[in-house]
Amino acid sequence: QVQLQESGPGLVKPSETLSLTCAVSGYSISSGYYWGWIRQPPGKGLEWIGSIYHSGSTYYNPSLKSRVTISVDTSKNQFSLKLSSVTAADTAVYYCARQGEDPINDSFDPWGQGTLVTVSS
Amino acid sequence: SSELTQDPAVSVALGQTVRITCQGDSLRSYYASWYQQKPGQAPVLVIYGKNNRPSGIPDRFSGSSSGNTASLTITGAQAEDEADYYCNSRDSSGNRWVFGGGTKLTVL
Known about the structure:
The complex is a heterodimer of chains A (about 120) and B (about 110). Chain A is mainly beta and about 120 residues long. Chain A contains no helices and 11 strands. In chain A, the strands form 2 sheets. In chain A, strands 2, 4, 5, 6, 9, 10 and 11 form a 7-stranded mixed beta sheet that branches. The mean pLDDT of chain A is about 95. Chain B is mainly beta and about 110 residues long. In chain B, strands 2, 4, 5, 8, 9 and 10 form a 6-stranded mixed beta sheet that branches. Chain B has strands at about 5, 10, 20-25, 35, 45, 60-65, 70-75, 85-90, 95-100, 105. The mean pLDDT of chain B is about 95.
């Protein structure tokens, strides 16, 4: 079955760039679907960060758009998130997920286990 | 602020039926998806589309929609259903996605 696994530094300094990778197994990214990033600050709700279509088209949360870049590496079957100029408010568990491409089913499924990123000096 | 509004908390007696709602203008055009999240775990999709359950999700979970409101119904709630539930859909532009603020379900 499809599995996703996030990886990256667990600690990032303020003003630096957060970089995470989501490795996909059991499915070829280039075959279809959107691939998304979602985050959850400690004790708070889910926030959609952005999604990338298998063709490379990107869609970003307007509140984060100026700082976010999502890219895909089909040769490694993974996609990545970069969030620049981070502050303590960016401390969260970051999840990656596959996302349906049909408007009737554009849900996020499955999800990675999530990775906690703390922004602190 | 979220474009999808959920009640922060709902409770239900064991074995009874509970409805969790999600309101938003975009729901007049797009289906909501529903996720269950237990402490320390990643969210799990429980309902998508008109009323579809992924493999492995019990049939006591069902979804419906009317106007600007989507609902997740648990018929015969079990202790293991105690969790946070989030709705998700496209926003009014159709090119972005948004999550509701979440509903904490307590099974009494």
